[in-house]
Amino acid sequence: MTLRIDDVVLTYPDGDRTLTALDHVDLDVARGEFTAVVGPSGSGKSSLLAVAAMLLTPDSGRVTVAGHDVSGASPAARTRIRRDHVGVVFQQSNLLSSLTALEQLLVMAHISGASPRAAAVRARELLIAVDLADKEHKRPHQLSGGERQRVNIARALMNRPEVLLVDEPTSALDHERGIRIVSLLAGLTRENGLATVMVTHDLGTLPLVDRVLTMADARLSEDGRKTKADLLAAPMGAGE
Ligand SMILES: Nc1ncnc2c1ncn2[C@@H]1O[C@H](COP(=O)(O)OP(=O)(O)OP(=O)(O)O)[C@@H](O)[C@H]1O
Ligand SMILES: [Mg+2]
Fold first, then answer.
1. Pocket of ligand 1, candidates 20, 27, 46: which has the most ligand atoms within 8 Å of its Cβ, to mutate?
2. What residue numbers bound the domain in which 65 lies?
3. pTM of the entire structure?
4. Is residue 221 within a helix (H) or strand (E), and if so which, with residue range?
């Protein structure tokens, strides 16, 4: 498995107690598999992505990313594995306001030490893939919310990751734009053999994913009811 999380527990300090955000969570995602994680606010979805992205170290359990067991890895090793194998798209577009769309992508290649010429080729390919070839010289304030989100996605793919982690990519978008972003993620996942995990509140996008997992009270479970119609017919948490 390209992304594997085994029996992970994550707690946060909470006054003189602790708050359990991930309670013995398991997750396996193979290459080319598009997995959605749904569930109520505060249930632990972003915490799960942060552990998968190696931004947080769990209290216990094992995390394997692209064949590397990162559980006991040093911060430097985790940073390197993230840079080389993981793309992360946060809910808030964290683009640099002074850079053009093309430059946002080139920064990633610079960090990884790729040659500038190869980086420019890759960046232009990706801007074409997200349908922004004609916007490469635009800065974030000159782009729409959906366009900024597409730059974010292209940037996350710049270093050819095997694992793509996406937190609520459609929350700032209307339904139609949301569907377009998730269709794009589905296509990129298949074409590039990515192991993609997308956190979403947007049930309308679920027919586009391969698998839906539900997070509730820090626990993750497989939800066999994949489509919007199924989920609406039997609301989450209502039991079978
Ligand atoms: N840095 C932190 N310190 C302490 N508690 C935190 C921290 N980050 C998150 N939490 C708590 O951990 C729990 C899980 O938070 P998380 O952000 O993973 O939820 P979520 O499912 O992503 O919610 P949302 O849908 O609102 O984004 C919540 O109770 C939250 O308050
Ligand atoms: Mg969240």
1. 46
2. 3-96+161-233
3. 0.91
4. strand 219-223
